[in-house]
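User: structure tokens for this one?
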Amino acid sequence: MTLQGLLALLVQRPEFRRLLEELRKGEGLPALTGITEAARPYVIAALTAALKQPFLVVVDDEAQANQMVESLKVFVEQPNDVLCLPDRDALPYERLISDGLTMQQRMQAMIALVEQERNVIVVCSARVLTQPVMPPQELSAALYTLQVGQEVDLTLMLEHLYNLGYEPVAEVEEPGQFSHRGGIIDLFPPTLPRPVRVEFFGDEIESLRTFDQETQRSLNPIATCVIGPAREALPIRGPEAVKELEQLHTEMLFSESEERWKRDLEELRQGRSFDDITFYLPYLHNVTTVLDYLPRKGLLILDNAESIQNRIAELDEQAQEMKERFERDRENPAHLRDAHMSWNRLEPKIQQRWQLHFAGMLSAVEGEFDARLHGGIYTP
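Assistant:
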């Protein structure tokens, strides 16, 4: 079902045209009041069609993010341009590997923002803002394209896949896996809905085809394939990170935790990826947030800014509690780098963005559609 035709009705309204005018000026911080939660996807879709820029929409929690994504898809021309950036499964300072689907959705959303080839709408929760990510420039540099007829050193390609976090398996079934047999490499990039079979003739790519991960049968030929990281941290700076990590007092850890710590540091020393390398992201990258992935001309939309700020304040307390608990339980050493972006660090980044707020329904009379600006209040 599509409701795209309804957008013209909103675009014709004078108060909507005034809102667009103020947004294009880039002045003030509009706060739309009186718009029900059910109507907000309608307004966002209309703004997307008019402004033709990437959007980052932040809501309170992941359940609301999923609901917003599904609602937006019925209003936009290209539903595939609406992406959910889900929460990372692990809490701050916790060792927990995200499942394949979560990792795929996160990488798809971040890569879409980095490539800037489409005017995507990425929706995320307040918690996602607090989760450190690698800088967009480093993610962009890690992307590479395979195409039919291209000459590729097979050995170097396999090594590169491993360092991007791809797991070697006998049969590829989930995102982030690859297999190698003779002149064929099967891999499942997070950028694609299906895995890809790369067939070589010598060092030349003879064919690229998607395949069914259940039957392993080849499906449709494709001309190109973008390969991106399968994990959210890269081991390139591993040897440098080890120098700092070795200074932490790990002798007080439980024996199992200490052994794992030593294994991880050896992998980093060798510049190799491993399952929970994301735990060491603050040491491997200059930490940024998803806000840094939004292009300068992109629009940041906060769905009830006060609620989002309150949620992040709660997450700040939770992160500190988690840090202290893991130290007390002797699972992590003390003095780890921050694995959480606090509100104090996020607020300046938010204020620098071109943005729009939806006010909570308690802030205005239902049915009102106005844009509060520094210069006053517009009413229809």
